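A.,

Following up on our hallway conversation. Structure tokens first:
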């Protein structure tokens, strides 16, 4: 079977093509110098090209990419038996301990170094743009959350202040007036009962208001994102809001404590008046002893209320 093929070389574009033309010309000069007969010369030429073609088919059988890889290394600095073995080892089915030169692996990947660098630059630019967009979006969300929580805190602070003021007005006004009316009417039993009711009302109102405030603060703190509370960058941290909450808690505690002290002072004054009234009423000695016992118990409860902290 006769096989003929034609292909073109571009030595001005590829150094491999230029190197191939130089080698072919050198081979032709060597063949001419032999002085063989025409038939022998044709036979040698046929064997030369046939061997080259079959060796290429052999490489192609190992891997379709192997002939291209070897042809790319076909230049003055690339032809060597050791280099050829390393190139073939890239496609060897068995494990090979031969070291692969960096240039070979890069060539086999299909992209040149310059192309890889350009691709990496494009990806880096795109990644930087995406990061900037994400940072801007996070900053906007952060500011919106901060504004929301600050507004919620200010509203809670206002409600708390109004609640404390209302409690003070109620306890120091209405209940104290009722107690004074009972004293003026010389009804000792009624005065003691009113005093007991006031102490119970103070304790119940304090506990109820403090419980409501605790729930509000815990709910607000729980709704704050963990990553916002731990922010350490140049943005305004949410820890400022937490500090304000703690400061407001202390202010509420002081207001309630002062209110308790005022009521306790009034209770003590009432107790003194009751004691004076009881000492005059000798005919009611048994009732006086009972009243003093009740008064001591109620004052102990008032002291207990006074000693309580906020939490």
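Then the amino acids I'd put at each of the 311 positions:
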């Amino acid at each position: 079977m006769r096989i003929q093929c034609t292909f073109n070389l571009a030595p001005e574009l590829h150094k491999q093509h230029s190197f191939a033309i130089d080698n072919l010309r050198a081979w032709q000069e060597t063949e001419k110098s032999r002085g063989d007969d025409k038939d022998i010369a044709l036979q040698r030429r046929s064997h030369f090209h046939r061997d080259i073609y079959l060796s290429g088919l052999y490489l192609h059988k190992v891997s379709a990419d192997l002939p291209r890889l070897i042809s790319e290394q076909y230049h003055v600095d690339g032809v060597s038996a050791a280099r050829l073995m390393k190139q073939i080892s890239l496609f060897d089915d068995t494990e090979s301990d031969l070291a692969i030169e960096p240039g070979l692996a890069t060539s086999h990947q299909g992209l040149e170094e310059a192309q890889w660098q350009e691709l990496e630059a494009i990806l880096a630019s795109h990644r930087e743009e995406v990061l900037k967009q994400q940072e801007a979006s996070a900053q906007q969300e952060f500011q919106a959350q901060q504004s929301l929580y600050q507004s919620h805190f200010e509203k809670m602070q206002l409600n708390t202040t109004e609640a404390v003021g209302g409690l003070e007005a109620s306890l120091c006004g209405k209940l104290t007036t009722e107690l004074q009316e009972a004293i003026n009417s010389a009804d000792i039993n009624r005065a003691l009962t009113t005093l007991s009711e006031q102490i119970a009302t103070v304790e119940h109102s304090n506990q109820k208001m403090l419980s409501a405030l605790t729930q509000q603060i815990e709910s607000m703190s729980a709704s704050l994102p963990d990553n916002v509370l731990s922010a350490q960058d140049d943005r305004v941290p949410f820890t400022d809001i937490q500090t304000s909450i703690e400061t407001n808690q202390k202010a509420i505690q002081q207001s309630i404590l002062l209110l308790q002290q005022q009521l306790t002072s009034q209770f003590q004054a009432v107790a003194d008046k009751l004691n004076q009234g009881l000492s005059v009423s000798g005919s009611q000695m048994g009732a006086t002893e009972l009243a003093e016992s009740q008064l001591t118990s109620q004052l102990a409860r008032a002291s207990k209320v006074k000693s309580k902290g906020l939490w």
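The chain has two domains: 15-110, 140-307. Curious whether your intuition agrees with the design.

B.
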